Amino acid sequence: MTIDGGRRATSAVVSRTWSPPFPLDLGVVLRPLGRGPGDPAFRVDGGVWLTANTPVGPGTLHVRRADAVEARAWGEGAGWLLDGLPALLGAGDDDSAFECHHPVVEQARRRWPGMRLTATGRVWDALLPAVLEQKVTVVEAHRSYRELCRRFGTPAPGPVADLVVPPTPRAVLGIADWEWHRAGVDGARRRALIAAAQVAHRLEGAFGLGGEAGRALLRKVPGIGAWTAAEVAQRAWGDPDAVSFGDFHLAGIVGWALVGRGVDDDGMAEVLAPYAPQRQRAVRYVTASGSRKPRFAPRFQPRDYRVM
């Protein structure tokens, strides 16, 4: 049967076909939602699979691009995910006023005309991995996220047996100290996640506020600073101006790409100033271009808190 303007349903799955009125590169748009190799809540395989804690329950979404975008969803949150499909793929993203001030940005924009800023509408699902990525290597953070998802998440509805819906705030509050240690999560990140889980229902309001107001609401939680708030804002509501200040690598990448030298956060803010209020969009073009800063020292080695 067909429901809600083209959505098709069976007893186990609902589906929707959507034709975007703009160029769309599905992989580029959704890539920021993946958390490294083996992410149990995100997979690229003949399309993109992702799982979610929605306001009405867990759900799984599969999106593929043919002539149009074809999406299928399972679980209690299936309808909610399909309703949010256009926003997820950047329909609410307006880049009409964006101007390129550097050749690297201009070239990247020409190369990826289908890059849009995703908006998942899900604050908690973006906040959990962002906190885990605070002040550790990406390898460490992704390992901890995988372990927490697999041990405290729930099996994802739908046909893929090993997909998992990330842990809910309630599940996070039930994790014992030794379980955090086993997952390689130190005390500071653990305390930040517990504090966030205790007020998670209020933090979802950051999506409605958007922009700096939404980021400010997130920063009211002890242990959540500007970097984490920006990482959430980029994914939950597609904030075009939310730059991840405080990132170990980002200022150097932006500096070398745009002005040919390393800069710190203050320098990055100065370099990106002409792009306000769409500084994050400029950053996305820089990172998509493959620009890297020169390496002058050995790579930082991951720590394993499980053996400390």
**Cα gyration radius (Å):** 19 Å
Low-confidence stretches: 1-11
Q: What form results from the Cα inertia axes? A: globular
> What can be said about the biggest beta sheet?
7 strands, antiparallel
Description:
This protein is α+β, with helices and mostly antiparallel strands. The chain has a domain at 2-100. It is built from 16 helices and nine strands. The strands form two sheets. The chain has a seven-stranded antiparallel β-sheet with strand order 1-2-3-7-6-5-4. Strands 8-9 form a two-stranded antiparallel ribbon. Helix 5 packs antiparallel against helix 13 (226-236) and helix 12 packs across helix 13 (226-236).
Write the layout of secondary structure elements.
Elements lengths: L1 E2 L3 E3 L4 E5 L7 H5 L11 E3 L3 E7 L2 E9 L3 E6 L3 H6 L1 H4 L14 H9 L11 H10 L5 H15 L1 E2 L8 E2 L3 H5 L3 H6 L4 H12 L1 H4 L1 H5 L1 H9 L6 H11 L13 H10 L5 H8 L6 H10 L20
Antiparallel strand pairs: 1-2, 2-3, 3-7, 4-5, 5-6, 6-7, 8-9
